[in-house]
Amino acid sequence: MDYKKTNAPSNTVTRDMNELCSEIGNVYETVKIIGKRANQISVELKSELEKKLQEFASYTDNLEEVFENREQIEISRFYEKLPKASLIATQELIEGKIFYRNPAHIKK
User: Which domain holds residue 57?
Assistant: First the structure.
Protein backbone atom coordinates (compact mmCIF):
# COMPACT_ATOMS: atom_id res chain seq x y z
CA MET A 1 0.00 0.00 0.00
CA ASP A 2 1.19 3.50 -0.69
CA TYR A 3 1.44 5.21 2.70
CA LYS A 4 2.90 8.33 1.13
CA LYS A 5 -0.50 9.28 -0.27
CA THR A 6 -2.53 8.65 2.86
CA ASN A 7 -4.75 11.39 4.21
CA ALA A 8 -3.93 10.53 7.82
CA PRO A 9 -2.96 13.52 9.97
CA SER A 10 0.73 13.92 10.68
CA ASN A 11 0.15 14.84 14.33
CA THR A 12 -1.96 13.40 17.11
CA VAL A 13 -5.71 13.90 16.90
CA THR A 14 -8.18 13.32 19.72
CA ARG A 15 -10.74 10.71 18.67
CA ASP A 16 -14.13 9.78 20.07
CA MET A 17 -13.68 6.11 21.02
CA ASN A 18 -17.44 5.49 21.01
CA GLU A 19 -17.53 6.57 17.38
CA LEU A 20 -14.45 4.50 16.49
CA CYS A 21 -15.77 1.32 18.08
CA SER A 22 -19.38 1.69 16.90
CA GLU A 23 -18.92 -0.87 14.12
CA ILE A 24 -16.88 -3.35 16.16
CA GLY A 25 -18.78 -2.89 19.41
CA ASN A 26 -15.87 -3.22 21.79
CA VAL A 27 -13.29 -0.56 22.63
CA TYR A 28 -10.57 -3.11 23.46
CA GLU A 29 -11.02 -5.02 20.20
CA THR A 30 -10.88 -1.74 18.30
CA VAL A 31 -7.59 -0.79 19.97
CA LYS A 32 -6.24 -4.30 19.33
CA ILE A 33 -7.16 -4.10 15.63
CA ILE A 34 -5.57 -0.66 15.27
CA GLY A 35 -2.45 -1.86 17.12
CA LYS A 36 -2.00 -4.95 14.97
CA ARG A 37 -2.46 -2.96 11.77
CA ALA A 38 -0.04 -0.30 13.03
CA ASN A 39 2.58 -3.03 13.62
CA GLN A 40 2.07 -4.31 10.07
CA ILE A 41 2.44 -0.81 8.63
CA SER A 42 5.52 -0.14 10.73
CA VAL A 43 7.23 -3.33 9.52
CA GLU A 44 6.40 -2.51 5.88
CA LEU A 45 7.72 1.06 6.17
CA LYS A 46 10.88 -0.08 7.93
CA SER A 47 11.68 -2.72 5.32
CA GLU A 48 10.99 -0.23 2.51
CA LEU A 49 13.31 2.33 4.11
CA GLU A 50 16.05 -0.23 4.70
CA LYS A 51 15.80 -1.38 1.09
CA LYS A 52 16.20 2.20 -0.17
CA LEU A 53 19.11 2.90 2.18
CA GLN A 54 20.90 -0.30 1.10
CA GLU A 55 21.59 1.39 -2.22
CA PHE A 56 23.86 3.82 -0.37
CA ALA A 57 25.58 1.23 1.82
CA SER A 58 29.34 1.27 1.80
CA TYR A 59 31.02 -2.06 2.37
CA THR A 60 34.50 -0.75 3.06
CA ASP A 61 36.11 -1.43 6.42
CA ASN A 62 37.93 1.88 6.55
CA LEU A 63 36.32 4.16 9.13
CA GLU A 64 38.07 7.22 7.73
CA GLU A 65 35.98 7.07 4.54
CA VAL A 66 32.70 7.99 6.21
CA PHE A 67 31.00 10.68 4.20
CA GLU A 68 27.70 12.50 4.18
CA ASN A 69 25.26 11.53 1.46
CA ARG A 70 22.59 14.12 0.74
CA GLU A 71 20.22 11.69 -0.99
CA GLN A 72 20.34 9.32 1.95
CA ILE A 73 19.57 12.15 4.35
CA GLU A 74 16.63 13.32 2.22
CA ILE A 75 15.17 9.80 2.10
CA SER A 76 15.48 9.49 5.88
CA ARG A 77 13.85 12.88 6.43
CA PHE A 78 10.98 11.97 4.12
CA TYR A 79 10.22 8.82 6.12
CA GLU A 80 10.49 10.74 9.39
CA LYS A 81 7.84 13.21 8.19
CA LEU A 82 5.32 10.51 7.30
CA PRO A 83 2.42 10.06 9.74
CA LYS A 84 3.01 7.53 12.49
CA ALA A 85 1.83 3.98 11.86
CA SER A 86 -0.88 4.21 14.52
CA LEU A 87 -2.36 7.31 12.86
CA ILE A 88 -2.36 5.61 9.47
CA ALA A 89 -4.02 2.51 10.96
CA THR A 90 -6.69 4.61 12.68
CA GLN A 91 -7.42 6.45 9.43
CA GLU A 92 -7.70 3.12 7.60
CA LEU A 93 -10.18 1.89 10.20
CA ILE A 94 -12.28 5.05 9.84
CA GLU A 95 -12.27 4.71 6.04
CA GLY A 96 -13.21 1.01 6.26
CA LYS A 97 -10.01 -0.23 4.61
CA ILE A 98 -9.13 -2.75 7.34
CA PHE A 99 -10.44 -6.29 7.11
CA TYR A 100 -10.66 -8.02 10.46
CA ARG A 101 -12.34 -11.04 11.97
CA ASN A 102 -12.53 -12.57 15.39
CA PRO A 103 -12.48 -16.38 15.34
CA ALA A 104 -14.33 -16.43 18.67
CA HIS A 105 -17.37 -14.78 17.06
CA ILE A 106 -17.63 -17.17 14.10
CA LYS A 107 -20.81 -19.24 14.30
CA LYS A 108 -20.44 -22.99 13.92
Answer: 13-98
